Amino acid sequence: MKTASSSSSSHTFPVTASLCTPYLLLVPLGLLAVVLVIPSLGSSHVRSDGLGVLCRADAGGYLVAPGGGGDVTAAVAETKAVAQPKPELRLLVGVLTTPKRYERRNIVRLAYALQPAPTPANVARVDVRFVFCRVTDPVDAQLVAVEAAHHGDIIVLNCTENMNDGKTHEYLSSVPRLFASDPYDYVMKTDDDTYLRVVALVDELRSKPRDDVYLGYGFAVGDDPMQFMHGMGYVVSWDVAEWVSANEDILRYNDTHGPEDLLVGKWLNIGRRGKNRYSLRPRMYDLNWDMDNFRPDTVVVHMLKDNRRWAATFRYFNVTAGLQPSNLYHLAP
Ligand SMILES: *[C@@H]1O[C@H](CO)[C@@H](O)[C@H](O)[C@H]1NC(C)=O
Ligand SMILES: *[C@@H]1O[C@H](CO)[C@@H](O)[C@H](O)[C@H]1NC(C)=O
Ligand SMILES: *[C@@H]1O[C@H](CO)[C@@H](O)[C@H](O)[C@H]1NC(C)=O
């Protein structure tokens, strides 16, 4: 029940705008390129959310479209011209993290960028965003702005940085407002020490209802086999996020202080929401000390708290299997 974060992308891989799913979101270049989630801006600014669109690259991997730099208007026009059919499902993955975790964020971006796309093509649109509270340090503000300008996968919420003091609530309740004009089917909360296999999750979600869903690693309490979902990563359907967003009792009863995953379960249980519950155990799990409990059918593996554990994860899932031999590097991963 901890919280961290991560995400996806790199411009060193071939990006083809035309392969991006429908909309590239405009990043307000210039400003703290980030989406300071300002409620009063309303839906007219929703589209100024990050550009971090996961695209299918030629190689079939995920990419986050580069956010800044280029001619955004042209990029959007081009994207519209090749608008694809509506995907079967749309998923927002929010990786909760903190500004200073630059190195981890880079690893997590790559972890998403190098994953295969779900098949059949266009079955899912999956957007990965790194989620922060307000960035107060001026150095971080500049460096995070540079990331946002380039990767476009940053969301900054109006909260003070914290793990168990309301950040998840701010995330779940801001998303319905931020993306009101173009809603997702599902909203996921995950951390930067979690490796999510997007294809495996999409395969699970395809057959699930689109409403009243709460899916993750179910935690049993008493007679209830799934009282709440572990914070390593859980998914709620859009209606559930909207319900959290509109529920003033959660704030009135100060019910945002404490272990975020347990609290989300508590809100939903009290409100009788998220009744379509699914636990993906044992396909979601913590990597053990010896790092020998990986499974081929993994949906989520968690506790990747250092580079060594990320390296083991990439090795197990053959992430560099496609690396072409070259005289330019001699790596023996
Ligand atoms: C952020 O939240 C604070 C306290 O909840 C509020 O007073 C302020 O107006 C908010 N700022 C923005 C930009 O929405
Ligand atoms: C809510 O919780 C915070 C932190 O635990 C505490 O400081 C505050 O007094 C509480 N407010 C109410 C109304 O209970
Ligand atoms: C990685 O590649 C090896 C060799 O091709 C294969 O046996 C193994 O199943 C792959 N692992 C996963 C998790 O796909």
UniProtKB/TrEMBL annotation:
Q: Where is this protein primarily located?
A: Golgi
Entry EC no(s)? 2.4.1.-
Give the main EC class.
Answer: transferase
**One Pfam annotation, family name?**
Galactosyl_T
The listed locations are: Golgi apparatus membrane
Keyword terms = Glycosyltransferase, Golgi apparatus, Manganese, Membrane, Signal-anchor, Transferase, Transmembrane, Transmembrane helix
Gene Ontology terms for molecular function:
hexosyltransferase activity
Q: Which cofactor does it need?
A: Mn(2+)
Q: Which GO cellular component terms, listed alphabetically, does the Swiss-Prot or TrEMBL entry include?
A: Golgi membrane
Q: Which residues cross the membrane?
A: 15-38
The protein's topology relative to the membrane is: Single-pass type II membrane protein
Keyword field contains NAD: no
Q: Name the pathway.
A: Protein modification; protein glycosylation
Which family is this protein grouped under? Belongs to the glycosyltransferase 31 family.
* Name used for this protein in its record: Hexosyltransferase
Q: Which organism is it from?
A: Leersia perrieri
